[in-house]
Amino acid sequence: MATIREIAEKAGVSVGTVSFVLNGKSEKMRISAATKERVLVVARELGYLPSISARRLRNSEEKQTPIITILWTLDARASLISRFLQGIQKKSSFKDGMFELLIQPYENGKLNEVESLHTGTRFNGAIIANASEEDLDYLEKTNLNVPLVLYQRYSKKYSTVNVDSKLTGREVAEYLFEKGHKKVGIVVPTISSQAVDYRLEGFLSAVKDLGMENLYILRDNFTEQGGYSVIKSLIKKSKKLPTVLFFLSDPMAVGAILACHELGVRVPDDLEIIGHDNDDQTAYTFPPLTTVHLPVEEMAVASVNQLLDTINQRLTTPVSLQFRSELLIRKSTK
Amino acid sequence: MATIREIAEKAGVSVGTVSFVLNGKSEKMRISAATKERVLVVARELGYLPSISARRLRNSEEKQTPIITILWTLDARASLISRFLQGIQKKSSFKDGMFELLIQPYENGKLNEVESLHTGTRFNGAIIANASEEDLDYLEKTNLNVPLVLYQRYSKKYSTVNVDSKLTGREVAEYLFEKGHKKVGIVVPTISSQAVDYRLEGFLSAVKDLGMENLYILRDNFTEQGGYSVIKSLIKKSKKLPTVLFFLSDPMAVGAILACHELGVRVPDDLEIIGHDNDDQTAYTFPPLTTVHLPVEEMAVASVNQLLDTINQRLTTPVSLQFRSELLIRKSTK
DNA sequence: TTGTACGCGTTATCAC
DNA sequence: GTGATAACGCGTACAA
């Protein structure tokens, strides 16, 4: 709370002196040791905290580069953020210093509590990831005067970067149909996510269209533990298993593989398993997991570019970018 | 580059008007549509980018809270950052709004290129994670006027938060000795890391002290792929395998398990495997991985608290905090 | 060591 | 009704 002016007053010196002392330039400026000490003591008493904004405003020879923030939820989906960031780092203008990047965690469903979206005092634009339905609702209803890009969500109001999740669901179903599956099942994480809903919808409608039977829609939490326990109880309880299970989350599929091992269900012979995202680990499970590759890295770069274009006012109306996902066949399917 | 004053001049209006238009308050302030349009056009021509610092400085009824930054490398170790952040979120004063948290990626070995450490124009303090030897060197030599805490590194100059990595290495060796192992091996990621070096050192010296034989020190990159390929070539080439292999990285251990499966080496019967970190996935490999639990969450909170204390000048000399890691026995060891 | 102009957006006050 | 003016926030750095 205290400013250097208050310190100056209490210590009986000028603001210049305080500034020098506090920045370790007292030697260069030949401030006396006594004065220095006095200033330091008062600063401590007053709990001085330098104002970053003021400092920065003054030093603004630092060329003005846009500050962009990634709003990401701090939950189990954290694994994808590393791919997102690596995508940005490797393939964008980040390394040329064309923008500054911040990551700001937020709690799922509580986007409305992120003050800086209103005040505009933190960043020039934001990429919002993992927005829940409430969060989207909030965004649609509120008039934010900050450039935004939504990652993996749809909106008419803002630019978006997506994969066609319905198509993904459909393609997986078609693949299973080609492989001769008749009875299938799907496992859905209990998170509020448009993308997940669309994958489910696309899958179920294609299953129906193709004349297959969907035996189960199972739900549990997003993690390995969720996949593990949902499959354990499925296997224990029911006689009839599908021939394949599509997990809308890789960690869940990983957990499921262990459950199968423990209960003597052979993957892929007794049960085939397909995941979603292509997390790093999935190539090294036993057996390696067949999964849908989500082009996170490319989408990350696209999100940043969209946002920069919006900030620079090269883009005046919202744009929707659509990417394609791709089924990676590994050993957990036949 | 352009300021609202320049826009005002070019558009032939006052700065107040420009500000109102740019903030969507033109209605409320009853600015004529023509003026509004003129301002908007000029702003676009000039490529106006609002100065976040100026904005923020003005709005500083926003109570001053310290801004702290986590400097984290954007490499494979990304999995740990999610645990780090979750630790902060769940157990610290973050949720009370006592500080603002930013994450700033940096490239390993290039900490010296992080300008804001010099200028002090971004944050009130920083937690530095994954510093390489060069980075540490840089920190020791340079006089940064910014409060710092080093995560998982030692320093006399700055406060640090660590686990006793030598002790970890020693304890693993002792456990193996108790279990009757005679011939062991260790796999080391090829990253520059004090913590890794200490674990290795502690392990090797204890192995020697206890009269066991260390057959291999294998090195490859930090990832699943690294562990996979190093073990594949080990098994293919050599006749004599150790009875246990200690991996100083969980992902490597995960990759190794798959390599073993593929080559018919049974885990743990033919070869026992121990990892390090207790990544989320390790509880769900097949078999579940015995690993060293790194108390990332607790260390994260401690780092934040140390840093806040330093920023608030409650702490005037560097403090070193030491945590204990813990061996989690699962099924990849007998 | 001190005094003070400066950086830039916001907003309350004042004027036409 | 519309719009201009100026004070303000706070740390920095240069002239005195």
UniProtKB/TrEMBL annotation, chains A, B:
InterPro entries, per database record: HTH_LacI, LacI/GalR-like_sensor, Lambda_DNA-bd_dom_sf, Peripla_BP_I
Annotated HTH lacI-type domain residues: 2-59
Keywords: DNA-binding, Repressor, Transcription, Transcription regulation
SMART domains, per the entry: HTH_LACI (SM00354)
A GO term, aspect molecular function: transcription cis-regulatory region binding
Full protein name: LacI family DNA-binding transcriptional regulator
